[in-house]
C-alpha cells in the first residue's frame, strides 16, 4: 500500500524530488527546439537549486564531487526552458536551449556514436 507521501509524489502537485542513496537525481537534457537528447548528467540538491534559481543547467560532477554550471568555461550554457519530472520524481527531463555544443568533445550531443555490430561508429551531425 502506498504511503500518502508516495501518492502525493506520484499524482500530486508538490515537487518532492526523490534523490537516490548517493544524493543524486538523473537529468536528461533535451534540445528545446529539436528534441534531440543532448546529454545525461546528475543533480544533487545544490545543483537543482542553482538550476531553478538561475535558469541555467547546473549539475553535480561525480568525478570532482563539486557543483558545475554547464558551459561555465566554454560559454556553451544550457538555458532551461522547461523541466519535466517523472512519475516518482527521481529523474528529470530538462528542455534547454544550448548556446553551443553540449558535449565537452565539441559534438552537438554527447550521443554522437551508435553501436553497430559491437563497434562504435560516429553519427553524422
Descriptive account of the structure:
It is found in: Cytoplasm. Homodimer. Its cofactor is Mg(2+); Zn(2+). This is Phosphoribosyl-AMP cyclohydrolase. It catalyses: 1-(5-phospho-beta-D-ribosyl)-5'-AMP + H2O = 1-(5-phospho-beta-D-ribosyl)-5-[(5-phospho-beta-D-ribosylamino)methylideneamino]imidazole-4-carboxamide. With about 120 residues, the protein is mainly β. The chain has one domain: Phosphoribosyl-AMP cyclohydrolase (Ubiquitin-like (UB roll), Roll), CATH 3.10.20. About 15% of the residues lie in helices and about 35% in strands. The protein is built from two helices and eight strands, in the order αββαββββββ. The strands form three sheets. Strands 2-1-6-5 form a four-stranded mixed beta sheet. The chain has a two-stranded antiparallel ribbon with strand order 3-4. Strands 7-8 form a two-stranded antiparallel sheet. A hairpin with a 5-residue loop joins β5 and β6. The chain is globular and about 50 Å long. The mean pLDDT is about 95.
What is the global morphology?
Answer: globular
Query: Could you give the distance between the termini?
Result: 48 Å
**Order of the strands making up the biggest sheet:** 2-1-6-5
Q: What fraction of the residues are assigned to beta strands by DSSP?
A: 35-45%
Query: What multimeric state do the chains show?
Result: single chain
Structural class: mainly beta
Q: Write down the CATH topology.
A: Ubiquitin-like (UB roll)
CATH architecture: Roll
Tally the beta strands. Answer: 8
- Total helical segments: 2
Radius of gyration: 16 Å
Number of domains: 1
Please identify the top-level CATH class.
Alpha Beta
SSE order, one letter for each helix or strand: HEEHEEEEEE
Task: Determine the fraction of residues in helical runs and give it as a percent range.
Answer: 10-25%
What does the main sheet amount to?
4 strands, mixed
- pLDDT averaged residue by residue: 93
Please name the fourth-level CATH homologous superfamily.
Phosphoribosyl-AMP cyclohydrolase
